[in-house]
């Protein structure tokens, strides 16, 4: 890109790797993989895979073949969670390092009749989303398949007291030895925090790698990875009684200094941040004033009157707090990050402005 962008994502590569190592340690003797679907939860899948592979991560998960195909040259093992449609078979049978996660008896038949290589299999143990049934597996559906990893997925891992967690764990554990799968895998980020009984042979964190904190047990162990920054496009003085932005939701209680930022809901800085979000510059907190627009957001400069047109501010984006402020989930905040940012990876800790 030759044109410089007026908004950027600072992406802390060290924090990403530290988060993976923390999750790997919590996974005990199980291997720790990485879910990199939806373009690495919005950060950029290639950059994430390269960094985690260098740190020792060996198992990656995407949703679709299009997501997998663009990563094949990195040479890591990738499982495609949505399995194989007929239209995927040419891609699926052509790439050594990719394998499907089969989800339905139809997908199992399709893969078996192609007589091809290794696959993973998803078993539904109570979420009623993707997966073949426990009964089908016990009844021999997978016989003769070369299964690398037998998986299931937890519906309520972010609610540690929920009874479904233990029900799913024990249903899944009951499949041990019933297939010739090389490994078993159940836990996502929050599942890792449920304890060693949930780790099996391989864990599959996504959210927490990227700074998300789905459960209290992970607080203090996960570092922020993503910090959006935006440039000031205009400064203005708003007189007492003046309103700011669409629908005039904010009325200035006194004469105020305001900056208009080059960032908006089209960048994933959602409307939920209207009047609740904030930014920082030079250690000062700058509140969002009024509605977030598609491409623009107003902040108050009362605490930082020295800021000028062209200066940069860091958007407050610690995921648990940003989710609370915006009413969006931590997942939506990450995967909503738009394409207009310059994505700038740093090796060191985050800069603030
Ligand atoms: C997305 C996903 C994960 C990762 O979940 P997080 O909650 O982001 O840690 C793991 N396994 C499967 C099957 C998934 O779809």
Automatic annotation (TrEMBL):
Quote the catalytic activity from the record: L-alanine = D-alanine
Task: Give the domain of life.
Answer: Bacteria
The Swiss-Prot or TrEMBL record lists the needed cofactor(s) as: pyridoxal 5'-phosphate
Might you name a Gene Ontology BP term for this protein?
A: D-alanine biosynthetic process
Q: By its UniProt entry, which InterPro entries does this protein fall under?
A: Ala_racemase (IPR000821), Ala_racemase/Decarboxylase_C (IPR009006), Ala_racemase_C (IPR011079), Ala_racemase_N (IPR001608), Ala_racemase_pyridoxalP-BS (IPR020622), PLP-binding_barrel (IPR029066)
Gene3D superfamilies noted in UniProt: Alanine racemase, Lyase, Ornithine Decarboxylase, Chain A, domain 1
List cellular component terms (GO): cytosol
For this protein, the Enzyme Commission number is: 5.1.1.1
Q: Domain Alanine racemase C-terminal: where? A: 225-346
- N6-(pyridoxal phosphate)lysine modification sites are 37
Sequence positions that bind substrate: 129, 294
Catalytic class of the enzyme: isomerase
Q: Family, per the entry?
A: Belongs to the alanine racemase family.
Per its UniProt record, what PANTHER family does this chain match?
Answer: ALANINE RACEMASE (PTHR30511), ALANINE RACEMASE, CATABOLIC-RELATED (PTHR30511:SF0)
In Swiss-Prot or TrEMBL terms, this protein is called alanine racemase
Gene for this protein? alr
């Amino acid at each position: 890109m030759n044109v410089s962008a007026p908004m950027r994502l600072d992406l802390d590569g060290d924090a990403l790797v530290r988060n993976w190592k923390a999750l790997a340690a919590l996974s005990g003797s199980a291997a720790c993989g990485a879910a990199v679907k939806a373009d690495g939860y919005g950060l950029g899948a290639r950059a994430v895979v390269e960094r985690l592979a260098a740190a020792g991560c060996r198992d990656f998960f995407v949703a679709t073949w299009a997501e997998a195909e663009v990563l094949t040259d990195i040479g890591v093992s990738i499982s495609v969670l949505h399995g194989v449609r007929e239209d995927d078979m040419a891609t699926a049978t052509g790439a050594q390092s990719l394998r499907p996660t089969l989800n339905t008896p139809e997908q199992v038949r399709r893969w078996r009749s192609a007589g091809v290589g290794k696959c993973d299999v998803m078993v539904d143990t109570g979420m009623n989303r993707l997966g073949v049934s426990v009964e089908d597996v016990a009844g021999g559906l997978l016989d003769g398949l070369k299964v690398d990893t037998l998986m299931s997925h937890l519906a309520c891992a972010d609610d540690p007291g929920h009874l479904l967690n233990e029900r799913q764990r024990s249903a899944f554990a009951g499949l041990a030895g019933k297939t010739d799968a090389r490994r078993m895998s159940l836990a996502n980020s929050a599942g890792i925090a449920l304890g060693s009984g949930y780790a099996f042979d391989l864990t599959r964190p996504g959210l927490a790698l990227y700074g998300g904190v789905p459960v209290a047990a992970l607080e203090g162990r996960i570092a922020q990875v993503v910090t959006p920054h935006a440039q000031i496009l205009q400064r203005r003085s708003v007189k007492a009684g003046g309103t700011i932005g669409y629908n005039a939701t904010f009325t200035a209680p006194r004469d105020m200094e305001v900056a208009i930022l080059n960032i908006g809901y089209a960048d994933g800085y959602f409307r939920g941040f209207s009047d609740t979000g904030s930014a920082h510059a030079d250690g000062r907190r700058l509140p969002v004033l009024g509605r977030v627009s598609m491409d623009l957001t107003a902040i108050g400069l009362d605490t930082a009157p020295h800021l000028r047109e062209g200066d940069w501010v860091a958007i407050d984006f610690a995921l648990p707090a940003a989710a609370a402020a915006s009413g969006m989930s931590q997942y939506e905040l990450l995967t909503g990050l738009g394409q207009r940012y310059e994505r700038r990876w740093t090796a060191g800790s985050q800069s603030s402005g």
